[in-house]
Amino acid sequence: MFQLPDDKQALRARARELAREVIAPRAAEVDRSEQYPWDNVRALTEAGLMGLTIPKAHGGPGGDFLDAALVIDEMAQACGVTGRIAVEANMGAISAVMHYGSEAQKRLAAQLVLAGDKPAICITEPDAGSAASEMSTRADKRGDHYVINGEKHWITGGGVSRLHLVFARVFDERGEEQGIGGFIAVRDETEGLVIGSREPSMGLRGIPETQVLFQDMAIPAAHVLTPPGGFRRGFAELMSAYNSQRVGAATVALGIADGAYRLALDYSQQREQFGRPICEFQGLQWMLADMSIAIAAARLMIHKAAAGANPFPDATEAAQAKIFASEMAIRVTNDALQVHGAMGYSRKLPLERMARDARMFTIGGGTAQILRTVVASRLLGRKLPQTRDGHRKLAARLSGAAD
Ligand SMILES: Cc1cc2nc3c(=O)[nH]c(=O)nc-3n(C[C@H](O)[C@H](O)[C@H](O)COP(=O)(O)OP(=O)(O)OC[C@H]3O[C@@H](n4cnc5c(N)ncnc54)[C@H](O)[C@@H]3O)c2cc1C
User: Fold this and answer.
1) Main-chain dihedrals φ then ψ at residue 191, nearest 5 degrees
2) DSSP 3-state assignment of 119?
3) What digits encode the pLDDT tens for the residues 268-290?
4) Entry pTM
5) Rounded distance between C-alpha atoms, residue 80 and residue 112, angstroms
6) Does the beta carbon of 367 sit less than 6 angstroms from any atom of ligand 1?
């Protein structure tokens, strides 16, 4: 655990070289142009880093989540957007399909991702953000297919991703609700999948965040991703695959923070004030020390969560790692900017971009508040309902148990 095995060190070295030689020089332009970095995607694809976690049986290299984390870390140190692409090409939706999918679904997903597609996961709706299970997108069964109607927003990769994993509330032919299911749709092949407007984002501007609309989108039953618990347990089981994506998001935050810290460490040794390099001032030495400590701690948490996956990272470890790394990245990127003084605030240097990019990770993929509830519910060994009704029922049950 503390010493990475040789094959993992070699993978990390390969990813580091690609990130530093190819990805880093393009990062400012990706941010400025707000264009999806297809060149970077091609470079990742050629290096076998898109679909790294796809098993050999389906044509992938058969890497694990720790391999993916090592690659994401290196990419994010150079470019947060490319780090996020590496997350979604190796974790989250693709992991759900490769674990729960039928043979045909796995073949379809593997083929797309290994050719360079970054899948999109469609959960959040305008009225169902943190309360994700209150989604209103519905899938009505009609013979051998489902008809899906609804609206998602903040979908990463809207308009560039082809494979979409769409979460919807399922109704049988009699109109009775069955639970929540995952539906596989392919942009440009599935009619009724419509890309809506793009959000103007604060950071990570090279990936579009868009609305995705479903207008009588017909999905054959063969494209329903059915976990063993069926639709009743569908949301919980599909979301367990999402714990991998949370570890991935934590890793992007870590990489961005580490990239910013390294710049601050260098700059503090170059820049002189009062006739001395600014690293000779204790005020900055302690900032640099604190940054390095937080980065090292986040990396250990991430590696533990990724290495312990069975088959997905543990929900508590994934939430803890994402909370810690995302909050750490906000602090570290701001401190690294501070070490650069006015130059940190200039768009000539990447610090301001890194601070904007880092800001996302306490929000997307489960907010830091919601994830604390996930951690607390595990610590206390019970669900912690957030609705008033659920809260009342739990209180009644607990007081009944106490009587
Ligand atoms: C850049 C980016 C990319 C994203 N990509 C995707 C994607 O690809 N697919 C997808 O489906 N979604 C995506 N999202 C959506 C993301 O998952 C949601 O933004 C997130 O779940 C929070 O929902 P919300 O924004 O509606 O906030 P809200 O749920 O409205 O929350 C507002 C505030 O209230 C707090 N809050 C809410 N409920 C509670 C509670 N019970 N206890 C304590 N605090 C609470 C929240 O923590 C937050 O601070 C993305 C978001 C961003 C910013």
Assistant:
1) -70, 145
2) coil
3) 999 999 999 999 999 999 999 99
4) 0.97
5) 23
6) yes
